[in-house]
Amino acid sequence: MFDKILIANRGEIACRVIKTARKMGIKTVAVYSDADAQALHVQMADEAIHIGPPPANQSYIVIDKIMDAIKQSGAQAVHPGYGFLSENKLFAEALEAADVAFIGPPAGAIESMGDKITSKKIAQEAGVSTVPGYMGLIEDAEEAVKISNEIGYPVMIKASAGGGGKGMRIAWNDDEAREGFQSSKNEAANSFGDDRIFIEKFVTQPRHIEIQVLADQHGNCIYLGERECSIQRRNQKVVEEAPSPFLDEATRKAMGEQSVALAKAVGYASAGTVEFIVDGERNFYFLEMNTRLQVEHPVTELITGVDLVEQMIRVANGEPLTMTQDDVTLTGWAIENRLYAEDPYRGFLPSIGRLTQYRPPIEVAAGPMAEAGTWHGDAPEGETAVRNDTGVYEGGEISMYYDPMIAKLCTWGADRPAAIEAMRNALDGFEVEGIGHNLPFVAAVMDHEKFTSGNMTTAFIEEEYPDGFEGVTLDDGQLRQIAAACVAMHRVAEIRRTRVTGRMDNHTRRVGNNWVATLQGEEFAVAVAADQSGADVSFDDGSVMRVESDWTPGQTLARVSVDGAEIALKVRKITGGFNIRFRGADLKVHVRSPRQAELAKLMPEKLPPDTSKMLLCPMPGLIVKVDVEVGDEVQEGQALCTVEAMKMENILRAEKKATVTKINAGAGDSLAVDDVIMEFE
Amino acid sequence: MKDILNELEDRRNAARMGGGERRIASQHAKGKLTARERIELLLDEGSFEEFDMFVAHRSTDFGMEKNRPAGDGVVTGWGTINGRMVYVFSQDFTVLGGSVSATHAQKICKIMDMAVQNGAPVIGLNDSGGARIQEGVDSLAGYGEVFQRNIVASGVVPQISVIMGPCAGGAVYSPAMTDFIFMVKDSSYMFVTGPDVVKTVTNEVVTAEELGGASTHTKKSSVADGAFENDVEALAEVRRLVDFLPSNNQQKAPTRPFFDDPARVDSSLDTLVPANPNTPYDMKELILKVADEGDFYEIQEDFAKNMITGFIRMEGSTVGVVANQPMVLAGCLDIDSARKAARFVRFCDAFDIPILTLVDVPGFLPGKSQEYDGIIKHGAKLLYAYGEATVPKVTVITRKAYGGAYVVMSSKHLRGDFNYAWPTSEIAVMGAKGATEIIHRADLGDEEKIAQHTADYEDRFANPFVAAERGFIDEVIMPQSTRRRVCRAFASLRTKQAKMPWKKHDNIPL
What we know:
The structure holds 2 protein chains of 2 kinds.
Chain A: E1 4-7, H1 11-23, E2 27-33, H2 40-44, E3 47-52, H3 63-73, E4 77-79, H4 89-97, E5 101-102, H5 107-114, H6 116-125, E6 133-134, H7 141-151, E7 155-163, E8 166-171, H8 174-192, E9 197-201, E10 207-215, E11 221-233, E12 236-242, H9 249-265, E13 270-278, E14 284-290, H10 297-304, H11 308-316, E15 333-340, E16 342-343, E17 349-350, E18 353-354, E19 357-359, H12 367-372, E20 385-390, E21 397-398, E22 405-413, H13 416-428, E23 431-433, H14 439-446, H15 449-452, H16 460-464, H17 476-497, E24 514-519, E25 522-530, E26 535-539, E27 544-549, E28 557-562, E29 565-574, E30 577-582, E31 585-592, H18 594-600, E32 614-616, E33 621-626, E34 633-634, E35 639-645, E36 648-653, E37 658-663, E38 670-671, E39 676-680
Parallel strand pairs in A: 1-2, 1-4, 2-3, 4-5
Antiparallel strand pairs in A: 6-9, 7-8, 7-9, 10-11, 10-13, 11-12, 12-15, 13-14, 15-22, 16-17, 18-21, 19-23, 20-22, 24-25, 24-31, 25-26, 26-27, 27-28, 28-29, 29-30, 30-31, 32-39, 33-35, 33-38, 34-37, 35-36, 37-39
Helix pairs in contact in A: 4-5, 7-8, 13-14
Chain B: H1 2-16, H2 21-29, H3 35-42, E1 49-51, E2 74-81, E3 84-91, H4 102-118, E4 122-126, H5 137-153, E5 159-163, E6 166-168, H6 173-176, E7 180-184, E8 189-191, H7 195-202, H8 208-212, H9 214-220, E9 226-228, H10 231-242, H11 283-290, E10 297-299, E11 307-314, E12 317-324, H12 335-350, E13 355-361, H13 368-372, H14 375-388, E14 393-402, H15 403-408, E15 418-421, E16 426-428, H16 432-439, H17 447-461, H18 465-469, E17 475-476, H19 482-492
Parallel strand pairs in B: 3-4, 4-5, 5-7, 6-8, 7-9, 12-13, 13-14, 14-15, 14-16, 15-17
Antiparallel strand pairs in B: 1-2, 2-3, 10-11, 11-12
Helix pairs in contact in B: 4-5, 12-14, 16-17
């Protein structure tokens, strides 16, 4: 076995590889750019070598720099992680030349699977199902109809030179094919000056399902089941799970066997992934093969108990696989949510900066990994597993130079509902502050009916959140839970206030038992009967909720038992109550005495200012330049001002034609998010 | 006998109705609560004891003798906030527009005198149309009496003003002399001369909101220390502030039970200061992580944001925080920030509230406008305030402490009790580049040499150790242990005794 390996990557994947290497008794070498000098992977590795400035093309993907680091450290093998150099044939070759093992597939496999057309051809030859289509020149509409019939409806008629939906038609029958061919051709001729047309199968209700394969250098290859990654935003996977709620055993077997055939066809040796698109009838078609460790590999590990990184290292060391296909069993269900530093309330705009708070839920070991002894670290054992693969820490930084991923939070349960429920709770207990992040969004997905029913396609986010994400509305039962919890918490905080020094003896304040909680536009009048261990909160409809918690004022995470249900609330104090975040909802909860509540009702409801006629600062930054003056008429797209943030100059442009009525900031002003820069009419 | 008792109740009920249902409804329609409703929200439930419910004016001009409502437009008395006594007056806009008559002023004076005598804060809820014109000079005399009491009470008991409606003309000068002014957004304004007069005299067209609304006074003029969304929130926040303040200048600030370990280590602070000395970071994060339970009551949040002022608790006891904010103007000192901090430091000193100063200051803001507007005198206010303060003073330098600004920010030389520095601090006469260009003027043309000199200067002076060698820094501390170190420092200073020589009063550069 290797004594020392170098990880040519950063962030969570570097940390994850280090964990396995450490377990195997292998020393690790990290590489880092200037931006990562304080990064977690650098702290975790046995050695760390600086490889240059922050941009990846001056550090992490410069082959020479990695080769130098290998030489300097004496590492015998390199794990490339994903991204960066992981699917770079030249890198694999450079390592081979230097007699350093590449913990990944042979260069030839990388090359042949790296090209879309070649890979599809090889797949076809290996008997893998590919999207049926006709690539040759199509003469006329009648030929188009004939070909469409051969492929089977529905079909997509596409311009060879097409893009952006232009020259593209979907046909469900002969008439539509005939007509679609003609209009596509015309459009293509007009738009691209190239009227060549091809036809391929249109995949309805597409789902993204991929097969994990594992092959050694001795010709053995197995598949480790599938992962479903249909929940994507702009081709970026957000939620993954294993197994897929959609596949049956026969389809799984067929996909698995075809994937193994493909891996063998290219002489694959390492962990790899064959991606398929699957339609509503469970027809599956090859998309591409990823010749590396996938981001979402933990869900496979969680249901198989196989440490994929360990297997990759062993394969690279020339060891034969110690398991056969029959040894592979899929047990329980695993879900992964990718936490990104992207603000869901602002169109998923990347939000970089300092993690002022980063407190992931406590990891819990359970399921196949716990049983197989492949669990990383010493998490306590439980019924459902929580695994958090991360490369950051509280006080760390999400850098503008790299992928804005904060963590991969995974849960495992005996079945899908258990895994989902574990994920909901894990998300509720995950505290991330300082930057915008998609935690509320993935929490919302976990409660979405289409997700819980397993009935999703790759269009899920687009279809269910067409106007972006605006938070979640909680149901009556949840509101009551929160109201009861907040009243109990508020009461504790108020009683503490009465214990201040300097009170008038015998005239101290008595904190009452009747309260009114207002949240999400609902009002709950309750009476509290507190005892040693908690409180009974009675609602005016006669129902009573038992609340118990060890929460004390100042804690940002309240673990509360409401009628025996354990919930975790993210708590921030606001005037007269709390800001609560729970299950993707973000709401203000006011707790008032009945009289206070009565008077509060007299307060005018202030509508938030109409920001449609304002230019708001999209990020904290410095105004470098204002391009317009009061009274100017601006056109859509016209530059209004330049804001510098994180060394980047961002030009803010007019969204529509308008007249500038007021300018509130000038060059040199530093602004916070949502500060009004100028107003229009 | 029963009739007499009934008559009392009847009279009370009439007084409680203030200006009557119609005017109460009109007050509510403006989004404002009545004087009595406000008192209910300000004080502990049922704790209000009223004075002078039946006081009526004695004016006989302009037919005023026919309109003598009980209470005369202001409700006064005392009650408790979380069991601690406070005196309160609440002007009743529904009664003669809350206008100030001689008797109205007398009522206010009475509770102010009581407050000073008994050592409890005075809270004024202002909602008044101004002087009662019918009374003429009697009304002015009333204002004068109140002003005089504001001055006498200043530094003896905390005085808090909440502007919850109009406050115009001479009336503004009573709040102006109190310790804190809060406003309610959209329903309050303050100005010496209103939009009509402004228009007549200067031809400027301006709305009351623009001229003296909450936004103007919290962001531009700094007259107000904070603004809140509505009456309910404003009064809740005043209660919260009172929890921080001592009742008078003879008592220690209150303490309350706390749920935060004074020895809590926060390793994320080790990465708070960025590697690049020119990259800003948010000093508020340090304040929140040092404070008990992350609870911070900020004063003048929207004004001179390059300086942060406010109250926190450490081990349950109130501490005033003054901090440079590197996020704004690199945290430099300028006229506004010096004035803001100076007034805050003096409040803390007057009421025996220990001061924690967090320093990252590159110096004074240069420029013509600063010099023309008197940065010399305004900067001196902060220097003066720190130097005269005898309360416990703990200072933590996180990064830059350059030049005169280093001395100003509660340095050892101004009798700082504990002066800590993080390893990232640079205590020097100025930044390395500037210093090099002066010391090595001869090499100015040679970029390479200047770079070398700069690097040498950084090595030698861009650290806390030169100052620590001289004892100007008591200890260089790990950022993560800041809370523990500061808590212990203040704990050791609970018995601090420091005196100034007798003087009639000082002569701070106003």
